[in-house]
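Worked example 2:
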Amino acid sequence: MDRQKIIVIVGPTGVGKTSLSIELAKKLNGEIISGDSMQVYRNMDIGTAKIREDEKEGIPHYLLDVQAYDEPFNVKTFQEQCRRAIEAIRQNGHVPIICGGTGLYLKAALYDYEFEDEQLDEQYDTYLKTRSNEQLYALLRQIDPGSCDTIHPNNRKRVIRALHIAHGGATKSEREAIQKHEPLYDVFWIGLNTDRKKLNEQIDKRVDQMFEEGLTKEVERLFSDPQTWEYTSFQGIGYKEFRNYFLKIWNEEEVREKIKVHTRQYAKRQLTWFNHQMPVQWFDKKDTALIIRKAEEWYNA
């Protein structure tokens, strides 16, 4: 049986993936799945650059606004919901088009990644939360050095997750080693990029536009209470920078500049990740006609 064909559009934040997804959906009778870990949250629209209703041009979209912002969302949940969305689009007789830049989420959904439910050891969890990032990473390097190849020392959440997995038995790297990491679908990976200077300019312009559209008011409405700063949703770029704003350490302009810097850094990490992890065919964002032709040739082959 032939595998389901799926188009995936990836690339750095701010490069123009959303507009391309609409064009491809119209040409190929497609429906769109968001591949962004932040756009799943309701009421978080401006800081996530979520597509507006009038921009969808009637194209059905999935995995937008599926989670309350005060509830955690993780890669396993995305995997389950994305695969359900793919099946729903298949049942509709349309082409699934995934658009987004959260690489780990996409790989988990499209490849043979398996997650195991574990009982949380509350005492161990409490112990880990008292450790510094450096102490946690040193512990992970001792227990599961293989995971250190893919987890950044400052990604506290993922480091703690890997330590919990190892605490429950087999380590994260041991579990991943027995999986083949093969794609479950026939995927055409489209990568959008542009030169670094232009990309940085586009990122800065988009951040400025977010503030003009009312980003500060959106964040104040959702996250003024310090208890909300622990939410998973608050950890995203465009939101977490407001912590120092609430603490009166930074003014609004300083927050704006920090968001620009962090977004540019994230875009660079995205490019590195996709170059090393996925068989992406890269295109310049202005070559829309070429991309559509290549996608049609692949789909009709």
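The first helix runs from residue 17 to 28. Residues 5-113+181-215+263-300 form a domain with the Rossmann fold fold (CATH 3.40.50.300).
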